[in-house]
Amino acid sequence: MTAPNSTQRKSCWDARDLLWKCLDENDDKISSCQKFQSEFEEKCPGQWVKYFIKRRDFLKYKEKMQTEGFTPAEGPQGAS
Amino acid sequence: MLLLRCIVGDVRGAGQLLRGLQRTSMSSQDSYSGQVPLPRWTQARVLSHAPGSLGAKLKLRTRLLVTLLFSGGLLGACWYVTLEKEQKLRQRRIEQLREVALGQGSFSLLDHKGQRKSKQDFLGSWVLLYFGFTHCPDICPDELDKLSAVVSALDQDASLPPVQPLFITVDPERDDVLALARYIKDFHPRLIGLTGTPQAVKDAGQDYRVYASAGPKDEDGDYIVDHTILIYLISPDGLFLDYYNRTKSQEQITESVRNHIRSYVSL
Question: What pTM did the predictor assign?
């Protein structure tokens, strides 16, 4: 399968941005943003959907760390 | 930072000098009756005309002039010292990078037109190199856009030699010559894409200590390749001189490359 070209990339990114904007406005409730979610899944390759979901999680986590601060772990957690 | 401290010290020094001169002039006016010994020139000035506004004005002008000259001198010295220090820092960094000795080997790959290109073909040019893959969701297009903008900005400067942008794939299985040709045309017109056999590509990547790891394939056979996100600057001698990560803006990279080119001494 060929890689998305510039136009396809942009169309995917726009769909992603619309979805993220909706999620921001709806407190991350996917049920309120179904339309954007399906648009996003249609416009972007499967791998990219997974990647952007993880990316959003990471960005939210980073924001949380930067605003709420970071509490270090209590010590050795035991065998992991 | 050094310049700031220098300037603050300089301003303090100038202020002290100004106050010092004011004290001298005030004391000289008090001793108009001639009780305190003074440098002859101040005495002559004070005695040559009536005390009051004219004398005070001349004194003020002299004081200001002396202060300005002194401050100017101090500022000049500050600036020179700062430049020297920056130059020393740059030299030290280049020596450190030489010790790391990245990109010493030679690669032999195919460009996006199917022609064989090796490291030798790029000697004599400044090169900005980026490793990526065409199925990259967002980072590679962003970095290549940034790279293209840097090269275009440098193109505007007629005093600089043209910089060669290079893109080497970390995904040789999917990024063949055709895929590369399709991909790179969205970026700078001089951008050359390079690919080859998995072994040749791996060797090139290892030469620059590029980390690349293909992720699991999904039902479409698609996968993401996790890889180091860096733009490498290579001198006309083929020596790795500097690198720029995601946090460096287009302006910062352009400025850095410009400085490297200007201060470059050929081996």
Answer: 0.71
